[in-house]
């Protein structure tokens, strides 16, 4: 065969493949996710190996997964997209090794890796070959997650080892059209419970958003899910050491008088959600794992166009799983080298035997370690109470916070002022003619003389007491300086 015939046959084969619509679902998803015309496919001719004669499945180019690289708003990413129409999206050895190769190349380039899952799990007719391929993939993903951002998008079934692979990522998106993740197949789980169950009620997006915390984001459709991934990538550095400075922002010096009003009424309760909404660039606040352990906030945001990580308390006391949620998020944002902004109004960890018998100590220690070892800028804003371990972990100078600001409404102490008064002045209160008024007087005395932010500031553990309305410009200027 001469070169003319070789080129003609190659062109015919490519035209035939396009006409057959091979992997069209994958390419439609890639078209939604990546910038138009930016996708470059790799390893498109890889074929499966070790198929059993029991299964009449002809080998297909690509082995049921499309891999390559492209761009999202100019940001380079590597991508792997499983095809449910090829062998049910099952993961044979070569299928897994294609995704592994994409992960390796993403690490070498220092760019995000995106995996779109839609799979029946490990390919059963390949036996040990399928398991070995999946084992290699898990090992590579585990290492990659320490070096680059990894995002999983679950658009269909994702059972067993494939679900573990998704679990190694930093962010997990679910589409409610068909996205589900299970440790064991839904029929196996339903049988063990002695009942019939809708698979979505075992491993659907709603379950993983509200009950398990496995889902970072859940959307109604594949299209919304993929467009949301595009938005998430805009918070990532262009590579592991570089940020895009051209993201639009609003005035970094903008003040918000509403924050002063919120602080004035803080004793009556307030919305920390509204506080962070007013502090950061308009429309930039993106909460992660919003449906899970809602007593704490984990979010991405921007200030003067710069992406930052945000943590805050909604509940006065943290539960063990609150700490776990914060720890996972902080570790992810440390990898992204995002500045960490901590808003603190917390009395410490939950009280009671239920919690003392739990893993609360381990999770509190893990949270402290994740914040203490955080490698980027850390800024704390104490809006209300910062009591005991909450102060130490979420705002302490010795935990490495570069700047600690306090609103005038802050209280910083070992225990709550009323608890302290009952311990320190127990005899005086008991001897008083009016016990209730005496307790209030001693509580106020402790608040003013020991727990007031001015005391912490006088020792240098708070850098400045600020008007709440100036919180945004204070954070923005600190980030510019550092």
DSSP, total strands:
17
Per CATH, which architecture of the largest domain? Alpha-Beta Complex
Q: Describe the global form.
A: elongated
Low-pLDDT runs: none
Helix tally? 20
Helix coverage percent = 40-55%
β-strand amount: 15-25%
| CATH level 4 superfamily of the largest domain | 2-enoyl-CoA Hydratase, Chain A, domain 1
Describe the structure.
The structure is a single chain. With 482 residues, this protein is α/β, with parallel strands linked by helices. It contains 20 helices and 17 strands. The strands form 3 sheets. Strands 10, 11, 12, 13, 14, 15, 16 and 17 form an 8-stranded mixed sheet that branches. A 7-stranded mixed sheet has the order 1-2-3-4-5-7-9, sandwiched between helices. Strand 12, helix 12 (320-335) and strand 13 (340-346) form a beta-alpha-beta unit. Helix 3 runs parallel beside helix 4 and helix 16 (417-424) packs across helix 18. The protein is elongated. The relative contact order is 0.07. The mean pLDDT is 88.
């Amino acid at each position: 065969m001469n070169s003319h015939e070789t080129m003609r046959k190659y062109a015919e084969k490519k035209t035939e493949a396009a006409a057959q619509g091979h992997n069209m679902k994958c390419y439609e998803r890639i078209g939604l996710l990546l910038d138009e015309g930016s996708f470059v496919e790799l390893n498109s001719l890889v074929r499966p190996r070790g198929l059993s004669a029991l299964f009449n499945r002809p080998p297909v180019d690509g082995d049921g997964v499309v891999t390559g690289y492209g761009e999202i708003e100019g940001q380079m990413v590597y991508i792997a997209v499983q095809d449910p129409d090829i062998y049910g999206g099952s993961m044979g050895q070569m299928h897994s090794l294609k995704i592994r190769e994409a992960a390796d190349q993403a690490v070498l380039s220092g760019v995000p890796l995106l995996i779109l899952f839609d799979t029946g799990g490990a390919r059963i007719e390949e036996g040990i070959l399928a398991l070995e391929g999946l084992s290699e993939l898990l090992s590579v993903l585990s290492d990659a997650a320490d070096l680059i951002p990894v995002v999983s998008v679950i658009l269909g079934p994702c059972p067993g080892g494939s679900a573990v692979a998704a679990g190694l990522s930093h962010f997990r998106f679910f589409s409610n059209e068909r996205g589900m993740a299970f440790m064991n197949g839904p029929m196996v789980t339903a049988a063990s419970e002695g009942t019939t169950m809708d698979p979505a009620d075992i491993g659907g997006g709603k379950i993983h958003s509200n009950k398990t915390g496995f889902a970072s984001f859940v959307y109604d459709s594949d299209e919304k899910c993929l467009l949301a991934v595009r938005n998430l990538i805009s918070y990532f550095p262009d590579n592991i050491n570089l940020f895009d400075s051209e993201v639009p922002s609003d005035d970094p010096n903008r003040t918000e008088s509403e924050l002063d009003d919120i602080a004035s009424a803080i004793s009556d309760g307030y919305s920390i959600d509204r506080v962070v909404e007013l502090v950061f660039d308009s429309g930039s606040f993106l909460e992660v794992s919003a449906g899970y352990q809602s007593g704490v906030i984990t979010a991405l945001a921007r200030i003067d166009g710069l992406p930052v990580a945000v943590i805050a308390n909604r509940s006065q006391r943290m539960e063990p799983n609150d700490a776990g949620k914060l720890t996972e998020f902080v570790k992810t944002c440390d990898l992204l080298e995002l500045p960490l902004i901590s808003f603190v109004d917390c009395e410490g960890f939950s009280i009671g035997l239920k919690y003392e018998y739990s893993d609360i100590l381990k999770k509190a220690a893990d949270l402290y370690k994740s914040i203490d070892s955080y490698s980027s800028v850390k800024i704390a804003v104490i809006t209300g109470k910062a009591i005991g371990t909450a102060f130490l972990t979420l705002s302490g100078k010795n935990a490495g916070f570069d700047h600690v600001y306090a609103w005038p409404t802050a209280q910083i102490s070992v225990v709550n002022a009323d608890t302290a008064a009952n311990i320190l002045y127990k005899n005086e209160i008991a001897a008083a003619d009016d016990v209730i008024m005496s307790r209030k007087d001693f509580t106020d005395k402790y608040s003013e003389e020991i727990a007031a932010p001015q005391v912490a500031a006088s020792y240098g553990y708070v850098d400045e007491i600020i008007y709440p309305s100036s919180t945004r410009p204070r954070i923005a200027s600190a980030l510019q300086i550092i």
